[in-house]
Amino acid sequence: MKASDEFQAPGLDLFSFPPLWPGAPYWLTKPTLMAVVGAVLICVLMWAAFAKPKLVPRGLQNIAELGYVFIREHAARPFLGKDADSWMGLLLSIFFLTWIWNLMGVLPFVQLPVSSFLAFPAVIAFSVYVIKIYVGVREQGARDYVGNLIPRGLPKVAYVLLVPLELLQNFVTSLFTHMLRLAANMFAGHLILAFFSAVGFWFLFERPTLLGVPVGVLGVVMAIVMTGFEMFIQFLQAYLFVLLTAMFIGASLNPKH
């Protein structure tokens, strides 16, 4: 049997895109275009929802306000307390932008979760990282900001190991955890959907056989089920991304120690 006659599972080539046209800059690819489209779309939708707000919200304003209340009550207030309202513009923007980037993975003709490309969540995560440090230094002073990261009242010998770990966690690993959690989940979800879709197409259309058709049907069913599950994960990861944002900023505003 020839290699072309064998089923090939989707691989990393799903995430490889050439420039949009010959001679275009190397970075001007479909993911970049979709990232910009998502950002513009969120700006347009938010403007349409809140440019002329009604006392009794309807339609788009109602949906946007539901999102506002959800983020305020379940992300901002638990970590930012009395400062929650002043940070809602940033948190809401991050939530909706990340969510629409995630949802692009299941949109027909797009089928590309922008957040699966590490560069895009990395830009947001790094921006939050800078804000976190700036706010911490502004509110506490540089010395107290660093000092408040370290728990107190422990045996002195514990600090030999604890101080480097706390500094590493707050100034290095927190940044990578923030962006990698989102990108890795979207990357894996896209691969899973592509796999089951490819199984269905291959065994039902490309190489239908008596034994292969049931496998193809199973692939289609799993693709449908996993699409629904992936949409839930896309929402959940957008929420967790903004939850971590609120947690990092809140820790700088209101140190525990």
Automatic annotation (TrEMBL):
Compartments (UniProt record): Cell membrane; Membrane
Membrane topology recorded in Swiss-Prot or TrEMBL: Multi-pass membrane protein
Lineage of producing organism: Bacteria, Bacillati, Actinomycetota, Actinomycetes, Streptosporangiales
Gene Ontology CC terms: plasma membrane; proton-transporting ATP synthase complex
Chief localization: membrane
Species in which this protein is naturally found: Streptosporangium album
Alphabetic keyword roster: ATP synthesis, Cell membrane, CF(0), Hydrogen ion transport, Ion transport, Membrane, Transmembrane, Transmembrane helix, Transport
Single Gene Ontology MF annotation: proton-transporting ATP synthase activity, rotational mechanism
Keyword Membrane belongs to the record: yes
Keyword Transmembrane: yes
Pfam families on file: ATP-synt_A
Function: Key component of the proton channel; it plays a direct role in the translocation of protons across the membrane.
Protein name: ATP synthase subunit a
Family, per entry: Belongs to the ATPase A chain family.
Transmembrane segments: 32-51, 87-110, 116-137, 157-176, 182-204, 211-229, 235-253
Top-level taxonomic group: Bacteria
